[in-house]
Amino acid sequence: MSQAASHTPAHALPSYLHSDRLGPWGIYLQQIDRVTPYLGHLARWVETLKRPKRALIVDVPIHLDNGTVAHFEGYRVQHNTSRGPGKGGVRFHQDVTLSEVMALAAWMSIKNAAVNVPFGGAKGGVRVDPKSLSLGELERVTRRYTSEIGIIIGPSKDIPAPDVNTNEQVMAWMMDTYSMNEGTTATGVVTGKPIDLGGSLGRREATGRGVYTVGVEAARHLGLEVAGARVAVQGFGNVGSIAAKLFAEAGARVVAVQDHTGTLYRESGIDIPALMFHVKQHGSIAGYAEAEPLPSDAFWDVPCDILIPAALEGQITTANAARISARLVIEGANGPTTPEADDILAERGTLVVPDVIANAGGVTVSYFEWVQDFSSFFWTEDEINARLVRIMKEAFGAVWSVAQDKKVSLRTATFIVACTRILRAREMRGLYP
Ligand SMILES: NC(=O)C1=CN([C@@H]2O[C@H](COP(=O)(O)OP(=O)(O)OC[C@H]3O[C@@H](n4cnc5c(N)ncnc54)[C@H](O)[C@@H]3O)[C@@H](O)[C@H]2O)C=CC1
Ligand SMILES: O=C(O)CCC(=O)C(=O)O
């Protein structure tokens, strides 16, 4: 990026913020560099997006069932709060790093601004393989982690939610722990809770529904008929399974599904409700007999029209981008495509609907949940879905227009819309003193 565009030269950045070791944070910095020339006078504030506002590393010690003590590393990063309290999920995964959580928090800032919900961006994680823990150990990790980050979260400060390997039960434990420590029941401290504890109807399905909604809009612009389209989905958890189900209900053929245990293929279309039932029983797609198993790398060669990465970051790379046959990639996951792979897809004429708009349905209904908790007045599922679809379509439409107008990718267009909103807020708030 042009140094003139910011106040602080890049070499003055703290070492852990440099983009040369290209992990998720480095990828995010590249995305900011790509948008900076389009920010006009607001580019003078862009440095604020290149560093997290606050990053907390916590030790999470628990008693294991065998009586020994184990320590896990946890993080909560608040990337930007110019537009409102921090908001973003919590991930439990053995490979979680501070750099990853910083990037995920930053993408939350962009996403929340892109759909114009009044939040900044935050994210959390614990470096643990939850599948190796008993239910009791998982509860102890969750409660200790919540107590440790309790100094920076709160209903009007920073509101966690589910992400990879966390769910409604984990949110219930987080809400309970925070409430015990505060001495009051604070339902608004997390979203994605069970319905009986102030959760919102439609939140569980919201991210997949948002992926489907913008996917249909993008397909319409491409002249791609969803009915009959071949869809490949990587990741069959909360996001991937619901997106697959909605595309199948619309008449698409979900020809391939991949999770961390393997890859399935069926040319005539996988029975998604049956596969979801299998996953509920067995915990993964492994052992599902009604589709052909494929080696995992073959997933990228599957002939398809629509590809939905809905697992982890860094999945579409220079190693596989040119093998993807889809005309449309809808990013359910956060950060699944590297910048170089983005360029390869663009050269091949593949339209990428970026994470920061495609998977914003989850946080949009989290916003509804937070509002409902504050007012203690709950909406019907139809009301929630209708508002969700309206917000997603409007946000996608706005981004589409910017992309056409400025002749940029949908990712850069989304960053233009979002960074403009964030930096305008930054500018209006001003700096102390
Ligand atoms: N849950 C939510 O509301 C939101 C989630 N996201 C993003 O969507 C993605 C998926 O999240 P969830 O569905 O919530 O997680 P989840 O934990 O429910 O499911 C994750 C899925 O990815 C699969 N997976 C993990 N590693 C894999 C690998 N190496 N190869 C293939 N598949 C693999 C797992 O087997 C599982 O099927 C993440 O990037 C998350 O940050 C984004 C917005 C909101
Ligand atoms: O629902 C939320 O608050 C955030 C969900 C999330 O972590 C994400 O959109 O990546």
UniProtKB/TrEMBL annotation:
Signal peptide span: none
Glutamate/phenylalanine/leucine/valine/L-tryptophan dehydrogenase C-terminal domain: residues covered: 200-430
GO biological process, one term: L-glutamate catabolic process
Chain sites annotated for binding substrate: 87, 111, 366
Site (described: Important for catalysis): 163
PROSITE patterns: GLFV_DEHYDROGENASE
Similarity annotation: Belongs to the Glu/Leu/Phe/Val dehydrogenases family.
Name of the protein this chain belongs to: Glutamate dehydrogenase
Taxonomic lineage: Bacteria, Pseudomonadati, Pseudomonadota, Betaproteobacteria, Burkholderiales
